[in-house]
Design goal:
Elements lengths: L1 E5 L2 H18 L4 E4 L6 H12 L9 E4 L1 E3 L10 H8 L11 E2 L8 H15 L4 E4 L21 E4 L2 H7 L12 E4 L2 H5 L3 E6 L5 H9 L17 E6 L8
Parallel strand pairs: 1-10, 2-3, 2-6, 3-5, 6-9, 9-10
Antiparallel strand pairs: 4-8, 7-8
Bound molecules: fructose -6-phosphate.
């Protein structure tokens, strides 16, 4: 495991963008696994800057996002499709058909999960999976449970996750109750994983995930088994590793 702790958010964002940009320079056709949420916004900003300076191209890349809310169309400002369009896709040379996010409006969510897994399988291995971590240790929307699911599935969001994400919505009731998420096996199959963690409020969970027992009670603890894990943390999140 490669742990890096940065004094400033800018350094962390540049480092994250540098890893993704570096991969695209050496492998333009890379398959990227992408995350949403507050954590990666700065990394996407740096990637857009690098693209505008002519340093990074996405033309041949393919992307798969981790998750999407059930019931939100891509035009909804809090959908993950909208987020990705805003923060990355519309600002770089990535053809829309090369970007994949589960369809939260599918009339048959189970079938949508099968479709997503088939697309993932056809794309081959994800070269780099970008991840954040939830306060309860979730990765993607794989919430703590007595058992975890390997492939893409429908998940009932835990109350703490809805509360944490309510900051992006007008009110808690507007936060969807369910999501579609890639499963843990798909995440762990990625060639490289980059976990990004920011903020004092994540210091305990990231420490537990990376140094505590490997347990489905903390899905991020499974990352300890990955042979090529890089963790980028700001000073606040990384305080227990110093
Ligand atoms: C987002 C995702 C989630 C977030 C996690 C942290 O696509 O899969 O696991 O990474 O909830 O969210 P933030 O970054 O908002 O703290």
């Amino acid at each position: 495991m490669n742990l890096q702790i940065f004094d400033s958010p800018d350094q962390l964002h540049e480092a994250g963008a540098g890893i993704i940009g570096g991969l695209l320079q050496t492998k333009p056709s890379a398959v990227l696994g992408l995350a949403t949420g507050g954590t990666p916004v700065g990394i996407y900003e740096e990637l857009v800057k690098a693209h505008k300076r002519g340093l990074v191209r996405f033309k041949e890349a393919t992307t798969f996002n981790l998750d999407e809310y059930v019931g939100l169309p891509g035009t909804h400002p809090q959908s993950y499709r909208y987020y990705m369009n805003e923060h990355l896709f519309s600002q770089v040379d990535l053809a829309p058909e090369r970007t994949h996010i589960p369809d939260g409006m599918s009339p048959d969510p189970q079938e949508e999960c099968r479709r997503y897994d088939a697309l993932l399988q056809r794309a081959g291995q994800i070269d780099l999976q970008l991840l954040g971590i939830g306060h309860n240790g979730h990765i993607g929307f794989n919430e703590p449970d007595h058992a975890l699911i390997s492939g893409t599935h429908v998940v009932a969001l835990r109350e703490e996750t809805r509360l944490a994400n309510a900051r992006f919505f007008d009110r808690l009731e507007a936060v969807p109750t369910h999501a579609l998420t890639m499963g843990v096996a798909t995440i762990l199959k990625a060639r490289t994983i980059v976990l990004v963690v920011k903020g004092e409020d994540k210091a305990d969970i990231v420490h537990r995930a990376l140094t505590g027992p490997i347990t489905t009670d903390c899905p991020a603890s499974l990352l300890q088994t990955h042979p090529n894990l890089t963790v980028l943390m700001d000073a606040e999140a990384g305080r227990r590793f110093r």
